[in-house]
Predict the structure.
Amino acid sequence: MPARNGSVLFEQLALPLLPSLYSHAFWLSRNQEDAEDIVQETISKALRAFDSFQSGTNFRAWIFRILRNTFLTSRAAIATSRTVFMEDHVDLFDVSDPSPTPEDHLLRLDNHAALTEALERLHPQLREVLLLCEIEELKYKEIAVVLDIPIGTVMSRISRARRTLYAQLSQQVGSLL
Amino acid sequence: MIQDHQHLSYEEVSALVDGELIPRDAHDLEQHLASCHSCALSVISAMQLKSATKRAFKRFAPPPEVLTRFRARLLPETPKNPARVYTARSLIRGALAACLLLALSLLIRREVRQSSGLAAELLDQHLALLSSDSPPEVISSDRHTVKPWFDGKLPFSFNLPDAFPSGTTLKGGDLIFLDGHPAALLVFTVGRHQASVFLTQRSFAGTPSVARRTLSGFTIQYAKTQDLYLTVVSDGNPSDLALLVSALVAEQSPR
Ligand SMILES: [Zn+2]
Protein backbone atom coordinates (compact mmCIF):
# COMPACT_ATOMS: atom_id res chain seq x y z
CA MET A 1 0.00 0.00 0.00
CA PRO A 2 1.43 3.39 -0.90
CA ALA A 3 2.83 5.30 2.04
CA ARG A 4 0.50 8.25 1.56
CA ASN A 5 -2.67 6.07 1.60
CA GLY A 6 -1.27 4.21 4.57
CA SER A 7 -0.86 7.35 6.58
CA VAL A 8 -4.33 8.59 5.63
CA LEU A 9 -5.78 5.27 6.78
CA PHE A 10 -3.74 5.46 9.96
CA GLU A 11 -5.10 8.92 10.66
CA GLN A 12 -8.68 7.74 10.09
CA LEU A 13 -8.22 4.80 12.43
CA ALA A 14 -6.30 6.57 15.16
CA LEU A 15 -8.07 9.92 15.33
CA PRO A 16 -11.26 8.67 17.05
CA LEU A 17 -9.16 6.73 19.58
CA LEU A 18 -7.06 9.65 20.84
CA PRO A 19 -9.29 10.46 23.86
CA SER A 20 -9.41 6.77 24.85
CA LEU A 21 -5.67 6.38 24.53
CA TYR A 22 -5.09 9.45 26.66
CA SER A 23 -7.56 8.36 29.33
CA HIS A 24 -6.00 4.92 29.58
CA ALA A 25 -2.47 6.36 29.64
CA PHE A 26 -3.60 8.65 32.46
CA TRP A 27 -5.00 5.73 34.44
CA LEU A 28 -1.75 3.81 33.98
CA SER A 29 0.66 6.66 34.73
CA ARG A 30 -1.57 8.75 37.04
CA ASN A 31 0.01 11.89 35.65
CA GLN A 32 -1.10 14.31 32.94
CA GLU A 33 2.35 14.99 31.50
CA ASP A 34 3.34 11.35 31.46
CA ALA A 35 0.01 10.45 29.85
CA GLU A 36 0.66 12.94 27.06
CA ASP A 37 4.20 11.69 26.51
CA ILE A 38 3.01 8.09 26.41
CA VAL A 39 0.32 8.85 23.83
CA GLN A 40 2.72 10.91 21.70
CA GLU A 41 5.23 8.09 21.71
CA THR A 42 2.48 5.56 21.00
CA ILE A 43 1.40 7.52 17.93
CA SER A 44 4.97 7.71 16.66
CA LYS A 45 5.62 4.03 17.24
CA ALA A 46 2.31 3.01 15.71
CA LEU A 47 2.94 5.19 12.65
CA ARG A 48 6.33 3.60 12.13
CA ALA A 49 4.96 0.11 12.66
CA PHE A 50 1.76 0.64 10.68
CA ASP A 51 3.12 -1.35 7.74
CA SER A 52 3.15 -4.39 9.98
CA PHE A 53 -0.47 -3.87 11.01
CA GLN A 54 -2.65 -6.39 9.22
CA SER A 55 -5.65 -4.63 7.75
CA GLY A 56 -8.83 -6.43 8.73
CA THR A 57 -7.46 -7.20 12.18
CA ASN A 58 -8.26 -5.16 15.24
CA PHE A 59 -6.63 -1.75 15.14
CA ARG A 60 -7.90 -0.74 18.58
CA ALA A 61 -6.35 -3.76 20.27
CA TRP A 62 -3.15 -3.27 18.28
CA ILE A 63 -2.66 0.36 19.27
CA PHE A 64 -3.66 -0.22 22.92
CA ARG A 65 -1.00 -2.90 23.05
CA ILE A 66 1.57 -0.41 21.76
CA LEU A 67 0.34 2.07 24.36
CA ARG A 68 0.76 -0.45 27.15
CA ASN A 69 4.25 -1.43 26.07
CA THR A 70 5.15 2.23 25.77
CA PHE A 71 3.93 2.78 29.30
CA LEU A 72 5.93 -0.18 30.62
CA THR A 73 9.12 1.29 29.19
CA SER A 74 8.30 4.87 30.18
CA ARG A 75 10.07 6.67 32.97
CA ALA A 76 6.72 6.90 34.77
CA ALA A 77 6.40 3.13 34.91
CA ILE A 78 10.04 2.51 35.74
CA ALA A 79 9.95 5.09 38.51
CA THR A 80 6.86 3.71 40.14
CA SER A 81 5.05 0.54 39.61
CA ARG A 82 6.29 -1.15 36.51
CA THR A 83 6.92 -4.45 38.21
CA VAL A 84 3.38 -4.81 39.44
CA PHE A 85 2.23 -4.84 35.83
CA MET A 86 4.73 -7.53 34.95
CA GLU A 87 3.98 -9.85 37.86
CA ASP A 88 2.20 -13.03 37.03
CA HIS A 89 1.40 -14.27 40.53
CA VAL A 90 -1.80 -12.28 40.42
CA ASP A 91 -3.28 -15.01 38.26
CA LEU A 92 -2.12 -17.78 40.57
CA PHE A 93 -4.16 -16.77 43.59
CA ASP A 94 -7.48 -18.43 44.22
CA VAL A 95 -7.21 -21.12 41.63
CA SER A 96 -10.39 -22.58 43.06
CA ASP A 97 -13.36 -20.57 41.94
CA PRO A 98 -16.07 -21.05 44.50
CA SER A 99 -19.61 -19.99 43.82
CA PRO A 100 -20.61 -16.65 45.23
CA THR A 101 -21.78 -16.69 48.78
CA PRO A 102 -25.25 -15.38 49.65
CA GLU A 103 -23.68 -12.41 51.47
CA ASP A 104 -22.53 -11.07 48.14
CA HIS A 105 -26.09 -10.30 47.23
CA LEU A 106 -26.46 -8.02 50.22
CA LEU A 107 -23.80 -5.58 49.11
CA ARG A 108 -24.96 -2.07 48.68
CA LEU A 109 -23.38 -0.58 45.58
CA ASP A 110 -24.82 2.87 45.92
CA ASN A 111 -21.84 3.92 48.04
CA HIS A 112 -19.84 5.60 45.29
CA ALA A 113 -16.94 6.63 47.54
CA ALA A 114 -16.49 3.11 48.87
CA LEU A 115 -16.34 1.68 45.37
CA THR A 116 -13.90 4.37 44.22
CA GLU A 117 -11.68 3.54 47.17
CA ALA A 118 -11.92 -0.15 46.43
CA LEU A 119 -10.89 0.50 42.83
CA GLU A 120 -7.92 2.54 44.05
CA ARG A 121 -6.83 -0.30 46.30
CA LEU A 122 -7.17 -2.88 43.56
CA HIS A 123 -3.92 -4.44 42.35
CA PRO A 124 -2.82 -2.37 39.30
CA GLN A 125 -2.95 -5.41 37.06
CA LEU A 126 -6.53 -6.13 38.06
CA ARG A 127 -7.51 -2.48 37.74
CA GLU A 128 -5.94 -2.38 34.29
CA VAL A 129 -7.95 -5.33 33.01
CA LEU A 130 -11.13 -3.88 34.48
CA LEU A 131 -10.48 -0.50 32.86
CA LEU A 132 -10.04 -2.12 29.47
CA CYS A 133 -13.26 -4.04 29.99
CA GLU A 134 -15.50 -1.41 31.57
CA ILE A 135 -14.21 1.95 30.32
CA GLU A 136 -12.70 1.09 26.96
CA GLU A 137 -15.27 -1.68 26.48
CA LEU A 138 -12.81 -3.98 24.77
CA LYS A 139 -13.86 -7.54 24.11
CA TYR A 140 -12.01 -10.32 25.95
CA LYS A 141 -10.17 -11.29 22.77
CA GLU A 142 -9.03 -7.67 22.32
CA ILE A 143 -7.85 -7.49 25.92
CA ALA A 144 -5.93 -10.72 25.33
CA VAL A 145 -4.08 -8.97 22.49
CA VAL A 146 -3.41 -5.82 24.54
CA LEU A 147 -2.06 -7.68 27.57
CA ASP A 148 -0.51 -10.51 25.55
CA ILE A 149 -2.17 -13.19 27.66
CA PRO A 150 -4.54 -16.06 26.78
CA ILE A 151 -8.25 -15.27 26.64
CA GLY A 152 -8.87 -17.67 29.54
CA THR A 153 -6.54 -15.59 31.67
CA VAL A 154 -8.45 -12.46 30.70
CA MET A 155 -11.66 -14.11 31.86
CA SER A 156 -10.23 -15.22 35.18
CA ARG A 157 -8.47 -11.91 35.78
CA ILE A 158 -11.66 -9.90 35.28
CA SER A 159 -13.57 -12.29 37.48
CA ARG A 160 -10.86 -12.01 40.12
CA ALA A 161 -10.90 -8.21 39.92
CA ARG A 162 -14.63 -8.22 40.61
CA ARG A 163 -14.37 -10.70 43.45
CA THR A 164 -11.66 -8.55 45.02
CA LEU A 165 -13.93 -5.52 44.77
CA TYR A 166 -16.73 -7.49 46.41
CA ALA A 167 -14.41 -8.60 49.18
CA GLN A 168 -13.23 -5.05 49.88
CA LEU A 169 -16.75 -3.67 49.79
CA SER A 170 -17.91 -6.40 52.16
CA GLN A 171 -15.15 -5.47 54.60
CA GLN A 172 -16.07 -1.82 54.40
CA VAL A 173 -19.72 -2.65 54.98
CA GLY A 174 -18.72 -4.99 57.81
CA SER A 175 -16.63 -2.33 59.53
CA LEU A 176 -19.53 0.09 59.37
CA LEU A 177 -21.94 -2.28 61.10
CA MET B 1 -19.66 -28.49 29.86
CA ILE B 2 -22.15 -27.19 32.31
CA GLN B 3 -24.52 -29.55 34.03
CA ASP B 4 -28.03 -28.47 34.92
CA HIS B 5 -27.45 -29.04 38.60
CA GLN B 6 -24.15 -27.15 38.78
CA HIS B 7 -24.17 -23.63 40.10
CA LEU B 8 -22.46 -20.97 38.02
CA SER B 9 -18.83 -20.26 38.82
CA TYR B 10 -17.69 -16.68 39.43
CA GLU B 11 -15.93 -16.68 36.08
CA GLU B 12 -19.07 -17.77 34.30
CA VAL B 13 -21.16 -15.09 36.00
CA SER B 14 -18.52 -12.50 35.15
CA ALA B 15 -18.26 -13.56 31.50
CA LEU B 16 -22.05 -13.72 31.24
CA VAL B 17 -22.52 -10.09 32.29
CA ASP B 18 -19.78 -9.10 29.83
CA GLY B 19 -21.59 -10.91 27.02
CA GLU B 20 -18.53 -13.07 26.50
CA LEU B 21 -19.90 -16.61 26.80
CA ILE B 22 -19.98 -18.70 23.69
CA PRO B 23 -23.63 -19.33 22.70
CA ARG B 24 -23.65 -23.03 23.67
CA ASP B 25 -22.45 -22.25 27.19
CA ALA B 26 -24.77 -19.29 27.46
CA HIS B 27 -27.74 -21.49 26.58
CA ASP B 28 -26.87 -24.02 29.29
CA LEU B 29 -26.35 -21.30 31.85
CA GLU B 30 -29.64 -19.66 31.07
CA GLN B 31 -31.41 -22.96 31.56
CA HIS B 32 -29.81 -23.27 34.98
CA LEU B 33 -30.59 -19.67 35.87
CA ALA B 34 -34.26 -20.21 35.12
CA SER B 35 -34.45 -22.73 37.93
CA CYS B 36 -31.82 -21.49 40.42
CA HIS B 37 -32.69 -18.47 42.49
CA SER B 38 -29.23 -18.19 44.06
CA CYS B 39 -27.40 -18.05 40.73
CA ALA B 40 -29.95 -15.61 39.30
CA LEU B 41 -29.20 -13.31 42.25
CA SER B 42 -25.48 -13.66 41.58
CA VAL B 43 -25.96 -12.55 37.99
CA ILE B 44 -28.08 -9.58 39.03
CA SER B 45 -25.50 -8.66 41.64
CA ALA B 46 -22.69 -8.92 39.07
CA MET B 47 -24.62 -6.70 36.69
CA GLN B 48 -25.03 -4.13 39.43
CA LEU B 49 -21.33 -4.23 40.20
CA LYS B 50 -20.49 -3.86 36.52
CA SER B 51 -22.61 -0.75 36.11
CA ALA B 52 -21.41 0.71 39.44
CA THR B 53 -17.80 0.14 38.34
CA LYS B 54 -18.43 1.88 35.03
CA ARG B 55 -19.75 4.87 36.95
CA ALA B 56 -16.91 4.89 39.47
CA PHE B 57 -14.15 4.76 36.88
CA LYS B 58 -13.95 8.13 35.31
CA ARG B 59 -12.59 8.84 31.90
CA PHE B 60 -9.86 11.46 31.72
CA ALA B 61 -10.34 13.77 28.77
CA PRO B 62 -7.25 15.28 27.20
CA PRO B 63 -7.07 19.10 27.41
CA PRO B 64 -7.83 20.68 24.00
CA GLU B 65 -4.23 21.76 23.43
CA VAL B 66 -3.01 18.24 24.15
CA LEU B 67 -5.51 16.82 21.67
CA THR B 68 -4.26 19.33 19.10
CA ARG B 69 -0.70 18.14 19.63
CA PHE B 70 -1.82 14.52 19.22
CA ARG B 71 -3.53 15.41 15.96
CA ALA B 72 -0.40 17.08 14.69
CA ARG B 73 1.62 13.99 15.55
CA LEU B 74 -0.81 11.81 13.58
CA LEU B 75 0.31 13.26 10.29
CA PRO B 76 3.03 11.32 8.51
CA GLU B 77 6.38 12.29 9.84
CA THR B 78 8.23 14.54 7.49
CA PRO B 79 11.99 14.54 7.68
CA LYS B 80 13.03 17.23 10.09
CA ASN B 81 15.03 19.36 7.70
CA PRO B 82 16.68 22.43 9.05
CA ALA B 83 14.57 25.44 8.20
CA ARG B 84 15.07 26.44 4.64
CA VAL B 85 15.99 29.97 3.82
CA TYR B 86 14.43 31.13 0.63
CA THR B 87 16.39 33.43 -1.52
CA ALA B 88 15.39 34.37 -5.00
CA ARG B 89 18.72 33.23 -6.35
CA SER B 90 18.85 29.78 -4.86
CA LEU B 91 15.30 28.76 -5.60
CA ILE B 92 14.50 30.10 -9.00
CA ARG B 93 14.58 27.28 -11.48
CA GLY B 94 15.18 27.89 -15.15
CA ALA B 95 17.30 30.56 -16.64
CA LEU B 96 14.47 32.44 -18.22
CA ALA B 97 12.40 32.47 -15.06
CA ALA B 98 15.48 33.56 -13.18
CA CYS B 99 16.09 36.48 -15.48
CA LEU B 100 12.48 37.57 -15.45
CA LEU B 101 12.10 37.30 -11.72
CA LEU B 102 15.43 38.86 -11.00
CA ALA B 103 14.58 41.80 -13.19
CA LEU B 104 11.19 42.10 -11.55
CA SER B 105 12.65 41.70 -8.10
CA LEU B 106 15.34 44.30 -8.68
CA LEU B 107 12.83 46.67 -10.15
CA ILE B 108 10.52 46.34 -7.18
CA ARG B 109 13.33 46.28 -4.67
CA ARG B 110 14.61 49.59 -5.88
CA GLU B 111 11.22 51.12 -5.27
CA VAL B 112 10.57 49.37 -2.02
CA ARG B 113 13.95 49.79 -0.43
CA GLN B 114 13.36 53.46 -0.13
CA SER B 115 10.64 52.77 2.39
CA SER B 116 11.67 49.47 3.92
CA GLY B 117 14.45 46.98 3.46
CA LEU B 118 12.33 44.35 5.09
CA ALA B 119 9.62 44.74 2.48
CA ALA B 120 12.16 43.93 -0.21
CA GLU B 121 13.18 40.82 1.61
CA LEU B 122 9.57 39.74 2.03
CA LEU B 123 8.90 40.29 -1.62
CA ASP B 124 11.97 38.25 -2.51
CA GLN B 125 10.67 35.46 -0.37
CA HIS B 126 7.26 35.59 -1.98
CA LEU B 127 8.74 35.58 -5.47
CA ALA B 128 11.04 32.74 -4.53
CA LEU B 129 8.10 30.73 -3.31
CA LEU B 130 6.16 31.40 -6.50
CA SER B 131 9.02 30.27 -8.67
CA SER B 132 9.97 27.31 -6.54
CA ASP B 133 8.60 23.89 -7.13
CA SER B 134 9.40 22.81 -3.60
CA PRO B 135 6.20 23.02 -1.56
CA PRO B 136 6.03 24.54 1.93
CA GLU B 137 7.36 22.31 4.70
CA VAL B 138 3.94 21.66 6.17
CA ILE B 139 1.19 21.23 3.59
CA SER B 140 -2.29 21.38 4.98
CA SER B 141 -5.45 23.44 4.90
CA ASP B 142 -6.18 22.45 8.49
CA ARG B 143 -5.19 25.05 11.05
CA HIS B 144 -4.99 22.26 13.65
CA THR B 145 -2.14 20.86 11.61
CA VAL B 146 -0.40 24.01 10.50
CA LYS B 147 -0.35 25.92 13.77
CA PRO B 148 1.02 23.13 16.01
CA TRP B 149 3.74 22.48 13.43
CA PHE B 150 5.30 25.80 14.47
CA ASP B 151 5.21 24.91 18.17
CA GLY B 152 8.68 25.09 19.62
CA LYS B 153 10.14 26.36 16.36
CA LEU B 154 9.34 30.03 16.90
CA PRO B 155 10.13 32.35 19.81
CA PHE B 156 6.54 33.63 19.63
CA SER B 157 3.09 32.19 19.01
CA PHE B 158 0.16 33.17 16.87
CA ASN B 159 -3.43 32.12 16.33
CA LEU B 160 -5.27 31.07 13.21
CA PRO B 161 -9.00 31.74 12.77
CA ASP B 162 -11.54 28.92 12.41
CA ALA B 163 -12.46 30.09 8.97
CA PHE B 164 -10.90 32.33 6.36
CA PRO B 165 -12.77 34.73 4.06
CA SER B 166 -14.51 32.93 1.21
CA GLY B 167 -12.21 32.25 -1.71
CA THR B 168 -9.20 32.21 0.60
CA THR B 169 -7.61 28.87 1.44
CA LEU B 170 -4.68 28.01 3.67
CA LYS B 171 -2.18 25.90 1.74
CA GLY B 172 0.53 25.37 4.29
CA GLY B 173 3.33 26.97 6.17
CA ASP B 174 7.04 27.08 6.62
CA LEU B 175 9.67 28.42 8.93
CA ILE B 176 11.89 31.07 7.38
CA PHE B 177 14.51 33.50 8.53
CA LEU B 178 14.05 37.18 7.99
CA ASP B 179 16.89 39.45 8.84
CA GLY B 180 18.36 36.59 10.86
CA HIS B 181 15.24 36.02 12.93
CA PRO B 182 12.79 33.13 12.70
CA ALA B 183 9.44 33.97 11.14
CA ALA B 184 6.34 32.04 10.23
CA LEU B 185 5.42 31.93 6.59
CA LEU B 186 1.82 31.00 5.80
CA VAL B 187 0.89 30.31 2.20
CA PHE B 188 -2.66 31.02 1.03
CA THR B 189 -4.57 30.90 -2.18
CA VAL B 190 -6.68 34.01 -2.59
CA GLY B 191 -8.91 33.51 -5.57
CA ARG B 192 -6.48 32.41 -8.28
CA HIS B 193 -3.50 34.10 -6.72
CA GLN B 194 -1.02 33.01 -4.16
CA ALA B 195 -0.44 35.07 -1.05
CA SER B 196 2.45 34.84 1.40
CA VAL B 197 1.77 35.91 4.96
CA PHE B 198 4.78 36.61 7.14
CA LEU B 199 4.51 36.71 10.89
CA THR B 200 7.36 38.20 12.86
CA GLN B 201 7.84 39.28 16.40
CA ARG B 202 7.36 43.00 16.84
CA SER B 203 10.66 43.72 18.50
CA PHE B 204 12.53 42.40 15.50
CA ALA B 205 10.47 43.86 12.75
CA GLY B 206 11.11 47.57 12.75
CA THR B 207 8.32 50.00 12.20
CA PRO B 208 6.73 49.84 8.79
CA SER B 209 6.05 53.23 7.43
CA VAL B 210 3.11 52.29 5.28
CA ALA B 211 0.05 50.15 5.79
CA ARG B 212 -0.19 49.15 2.17
CA ARG B 213 1.74 49.53 -1.01
CA THR B 214 1.07 48.38 -4.49
CA LEU B 215 4.15 47.89 -6.60
CA SER B 216 4.21 46.45 -10.09
CA GLY B 217 1.04 44.53 -9.43
CA PHE B 218 2.12 43.19 -6.02
CA THR B 219 0.37 44.31 -2.90
CA ILE B 220 2.33 44.47 0.32
CA GLN B 221 0.05 44.95 3.24
CA TYR B 222 1.16 45.39 6.83
CA ALA B 223 -0.64 45.05 10.10
CA LYS B 224 0.46 45.43 13.67
CA THR B 225 -0.93 43.42 16.54
CA GLN B 226 0.12 43.60 20.16
CA ASP B 227 2.99 41.18 19.67
CA LEU B 228 3.33 40.61 15.96
CA TYR B 229 3.93 42.15 12.63
CA LEU B 230 1.91 40.62 9.91
CA THR B 231 2.77 41.21 6.28
CA VAL B 232 0.92 39.92 3.25
CA VAL B 233 2.54 39.86 -0.16
CA SER B 234 0.44 38.93 -3.16
CA ASP B 235 -0.66 39.90 -6.62
CA GLY B 236 -4.24 39.05 -5.64
CA ASN B 237 -7.16 41.41 -5.29
CA PRO B 238 -6.20 44.00 -2.63
CA SER B 239 -9.66 44.00 -1.03
CA ASP B 240 -9.57 40.19 -0.68
CA LEU B 241 -6.13 40.51 0.92
CA ALA B 242 -7.48 43.13 3.30
CA LEU B 243 -10.16 40.67 4.42
CA LEU B 244 -7.53 38.01 5.05
CA VAL B 245 -5.41 40.46 7.02
CA SER B 246 -8.29 41.54 9.23
CA ALA B 247 -9.32 37.90 9.84
CA LEU B 248 -5.77 37.14 10.95
CA VAL B 249 -5.42 40.28 13.03
CA ALA B 250 -8.73 39.70 14.80
CA GLU B 251 -7.51 36.28 15.93
CA GLN B 252 -4.34 37.69 17.54
CA SER B 253 -6.10 40.05 19.94
CA PRO B 254 -5.84 38.91 23.55
CA ARG B 255 -8.96 37.31 25.01
ZN1 LIG C 1 -27.25 -22.22 40.75
